[in-house]
Amino acid sequence: DEWTHPVTVSINRVTISNTKSDERPADFPKLLPTGNQNVAVSYTTKLLQNRPNPCRYMTLIPYELSATTHVRLEILNLEGIIIEMPVDKIQSPGHYTISYDARDLPAGIYLYRLQTGKGYVKSKKMSVIK
Q: What CA–CA distances, in Å, run from 108 to 3, 78, 99?
């Protein structure tokens, strides 16, 4: 079978170091399909711990969705008051990582909460240091 469907590749981090300025930069390989594996990926709806934690400025908040649903990701103070809502939209099943800028938050403990239209609600603690 020929590869006829689009493919999405997600790369979380690439670090390239070139200590010799007279050398050419590295060439990236071309990615070619090796066949249609028909591998189904299944996800479980879950909220994962932010990283780094504690954070100073930026932190990553990962979560997974098992089905297409409306998603709200909220940042709350310890009194339960919503400070920000980085995500408020319908999303497909999959793994997501939100980059959250916490530089304007005072140092302290905060909560982040994931709510879906399917009834999933989960909160985790996030520490901000300065």
A: 51, 9, 19
If you count DSSP H runs as helices and E runs as strands, how many of each does the chain have, helices first? 0, 7
Q: What is the DSSP letter of 93?
A: S
Distance (Å, whole) CA 113 – CA 120: 10
- Name, in order, each residue with C-beta under 8 angstroms of 29's C-beta and a sequence gap of 6 or more: none
Closest CA to 63 of 11, 102, 125, 113: 113
Q: What is the CA radius of gyration of the chain?
A: 19
Phi–psi pair at 61, nearest 5 degrees = -115, 105
Q: Is 47:122 a contact under the CB 8 Å cutoff?
A: yes
Each residue of 66-89: pLDDT tens digit? 999 999 999 999 999 999 999 999
Count of residues in the chain: 130
Closest CA to 129 of 32, 42, 56, 44: 56
